[in-house]
Each structure stands twice: as C-alpha cells, then as structure tokens.
Amino acid sequence: MTLSVRIHDHGGPDVLKPEDIDLPDPGAGEVRLRQDAVGLNYIDVYHRTGLYPVPQLPTPIGLEGAGVVAALGDGVSELRVGDRVAYASPPLGAYQAERNMPADRLVRLPESIDTQQAAAMMLQGITVEYLVRRTFAVKKGMTVLLHAAAGGVGLIACQWLNAIGATVIGTVGSEAKAELAKAHGCHHTILYNSEDVAERVKEITHGAGVPVVYDGVGAATWEASLSSLARRGVLVSFGNASGAVTEFNPGQLAKRGSLFLTRPTLMDYTVSRKELTESANALFEKVLDGAVKIEVNQTYALKDAAQAHKDLEARKTTGSTVLLPDG
C-alpha cells in the first residue's frame, strides 16, 4: 500500500483526499519511484478544478517529483535501482509516496542537487528555460515584463533573465513580494493592485514598451500585457492563475502594433527525450554555477495537499513549495 492523494470529483481544495492504494508492479518501460518530494504547481489547481481535463476519475494529480528508483520494469536499461531522478511531465500521479513512471520521462540528478530541491525546480525551472531561451530568446540589453515575479516561476525567471543581462520589470501583489523579487534580480517592481501596470511600463521604458511580456496570470493581466508591448512585441501567455481569457479579437493585435501572441505549454517543449534532457541540463547548469538559486519557501506533508492548494490560491506562498510524503 502507498499513500495517494486523489480527486474523485472536480472542485475546491477539499476534493483532495489522502488514501492508501495498492500499486502494481512497474510495466514495460516503467520504473517504480520512491518519492522524497513532490512539487506543487498551479497546473495542479487546473487539473483539480477541471479547467484542464484529466484522463479519468478518481486520479492522483501532480506532474513533478523527485526520488529514488526502487524497481525496474521490463526493457528499462538507462536507469538502475538506487538512481536519484526527477521529472516534470505526464502522466498525472505525482501526489503519491510511490508511483510508477515512464523511464524516458525521468532525468538523473547531479550529485550536488538534492531531491527536495529538484522537486521544487523541475517544472518551474524547465518552464523558465523554454520561455526565455526558446519561446522568445531574450538577449542582453532587452527589457522584459514578467507577471507574478515573486512566484515560483517568477523568482527563477528573475534570476535567469538577470544572468542573461536583461532588465526585468516584475508585477507583484505587495511590498514584501516586491522586496523578494528585487532580491532575486528584478530591477523594477510594479504593485498591480495600486498601480497602472502598462503606464508604469511605459514610464520605465521611456514610452517604448517591452519586446516581450511573460504572463502566467491570465484574465486579470491580459489588457495590461497587451498595452505594455512595443510594436511587433510578443505576448507569451503561459498560464491562467486568475482565470482563462475567454474572448479575444485577433484584430486587436494589429491595432496595437502588429503584435504576436503565443500560448505555449511545457509539454510541447519537452516532447522528445532530447528536448527534455537538454532543457533539464540547461537548468542544472544554471543552478550549479550559482546563477539561479532554488529556494523551497514552503513545505507541507503530502496528506495536507488540500491546505497547500488553499494557500497557493490565496497567494500566501512565494517561490517554490514541495509536498513531503514522509512529512
């Protein structure tokens, strides 16, 4: 038997139910993973509420974790029992003490990165990698707008962008979060609750606007994001923390200066084994050389996942959060 936090129906945090389940032996191409830590991400909320569909109910949710290989299925040759590994990809099921996972979705961890740190950085860190290197390749000297700069993706992105040599404008919800973002490389902060974001961006850029906006918030920041872009700028809409944008007239892109819009997902940027390992290795390199520091600011016992979701949605968390199966 193993602890599994599952949903039987979609809804609020309280639909997350800790249960003991029987786990089958790993199938062909799979490994049994004994998890040390599970990453908490906003995409988990989308799966819990039904905004993003799940294959079936009941199901454990979660897409990120790290631990030790405990058993091998048939045909697995690249991993060994005892290997320390991490992942940030389907299938759903990270909210378990042990799980079976396709071996080709796992990456070995460098010795100096522990499993708790890995579970806090894989999904968010690989997201930052593809956003700033591949969706829109940020160059030294550029100025970018980053929403939710004190969040998990935000703090990693601030550091990565700062290492590139970009100027980062970040939106935050409080003075405390502004200080946190600045401590991680954000050059200018905007309090979105009390300031006009687009107006402040234009002030900071002397009227030019920015070539790219990274927006993981969605509906609440949509208008500000479009209005902050320079001519032929790119809006990278990669999340819906405030709700999805339900209606949009593409003609607005032309009206505002021939803008570009993309809605990328991590899964489309890590489709192949090669893309996955190259992205993970780029992240590991940034962490190992000190350019990006991963801070686990909150931990919860896995059985308390419902409370973790409540705090995440109430914007009470900063940086990375992990769930501990043995917590």
Automatic annotation (TrEMBL):
Domain named Enoyl reductase (ER) is located at 11-323
Which InterPro entries has this protein been placed in?
A: ADH-like_C (IPR013149), ADH-like_N (IPR013154), ER (IPR020843), GroES-like_sf (IPR011032), NAD(P)-bd_dom_sf (IPR036291), QOR-like (IPR047618)
Q: Which CDD domains match?
A: QOR2 (cd05286)
Gene3D superfamilies given in the database record:
Medium-chain alcohol dehydrogenases, catalytic domain, NAD(P)-binding Rossmann-like Domain
Keyword list, A-Z: NADP, Oxidoreductase
Q: What domain of life is recorded for the organism?
A: Bacteria
List the NCBIfam families hit by this protein, alphabetically: PRK10754.1
User: What is the protein named?
Assistant: Quinone oxidoreductase
